[in-house]
TrEMBL record:
Coiled-coil ranges from the UniProt annotation: none
PANTHER family per the UniProt record, alphabetical: FORMATE DEHYDROGENASE, SULFUR CARRIER PROTEIN FDHD
Designated name of the protein: Sulfur carrier protein FdhD
Organism classification: Bacteria, Pseudomonadati, Pseudomonadota, Gammaproteobacteria, Alteromonadales
Nucleus among keywords: no
Principal location class: cytoplasm
Keywords recorded for this protein, A-Z: Cytoplasm, Molybdenum cofactor biosynthesis
Family designation: Belongs to the FdhD family.
Length: 278
């Protein structure tokens, strides 16, 4: 199957097999491309992503992975589409680049000595960041956001293959939405979107996926204080949310939600039924 590197969705003729019958129809497939992130000329990582909003992804990834601590430390982002994928050249300050190189040297120095796996585990568990505590959200307004899901998931409606990360305002309105085949990348795009535009941080973030450890870790790096997930919450995510002072709510569906941590930020008529958890 061939597609233009900029296309997010591809049309394809397929055969539907249903109840013993075969019929031809047009299907829509979510495209994924290799995305290489290069910092100051040094290759860092290659990921698979949807070929859209890749500047936001690069900025969000650089922030959420704590390669830089502030968006002003990112000096430039250049995209190059090639037959093999997308090359993203990210220029960061010399201080941040030296710290990144030192981290890479530390990891390389342990390879082959029996400690490589330990080093990788240490790298995965970054120092805990405690978010601010000023955000408040009326839990009754969650239904507003859930009611706006379809109109903010254009690629999912076509393909059924993408996740979304959406920023909510205090009224539950979706003020920013990013989709990707990767749930982590969708969240990075959201973080990059409001960071690069120096826009007001969302009061809460709604994920169409589960809330895993990495998602909570990225949220903490971006000072996201309230995290709603439409699917389940993992044990390490719950543990990190508790330590990071993040309000974590899972299984957000029509008329229900499961509160896991720091419910003091939630307001509204349903607060009484959450009183024991708070």
């Amino acid at each position: 199957m061939e597609y233009h590197s900029h296309a997010v969705v591809t049309e394809r003729k397929v055969t539907l097999l249903e109840q013993g019958q075969a019929s031809e129809l047009t299907d829509y497939v979510a495209n994924e491309v290799r995305v290489a992130l290069v910092y100051n000329g040094i290759a860092h990582t290659v990921m698979l992503a949807s070929p859209e909003n890749l500047e936001e992804f690069a900025i969000g990834f650089t922030l959420s992975e704590r390669i830089v601590s502030h968006v002003n430390e990112i000096k430039g982002v250049d995209l190059e589409f090639t037959p093999e994928g997308v090359l993203i050249q990210v220029e960061i300050t010399q201080r941040c680049f030296m710290e990144l190189k030192q981290q890479r040297r530390n990891m390389a120095g342990r390879t082959g000595c029996g400690l490589c796996g330990v080093a990788q585990l240490e790298e995965a568990v970054k120092p805990v960041i405690r978010v601010d505590s000023d955000a408040r959200f009326n839990i009754d307004h969650l239904q507003v956001a859930l009611g706006q899901l379809k109109e903010n998931q254009h690629h999912f409606k076509l393909t059924g293959a993408t996740h979304a990360a959406m920023g909510l305002d205090a009224e539950g309105q979706i003020i920013a939405a990013f989709e990707d085949i990767g749930r982590h990348i969708a969240l990075d795009k959201l973080i990059g979107g409001f960071s690069m535009r120096k826009a007001e941080r969302p009061v809460a973030v709604l994920l169409t996926s589960r809330a895993s450890f990495e998602m909570v870790q990225k949220a903490a790096s971006a000072n996201i204080q309230i995290l709603f997930a439409m699917s389940a919450v993992t044990s390490l995510a719950l543990e990190l949310a508790e330590k990071s002072n993040i309000t974590l709510i899972g299984f957000c569906r029509n008329g229900r939600a499961t509160l896991y941590t720091h419910g003091y930020r939630l307001l509204g008529q349903n607060r009484a039924c959450l009183a024991k958890a708070i």
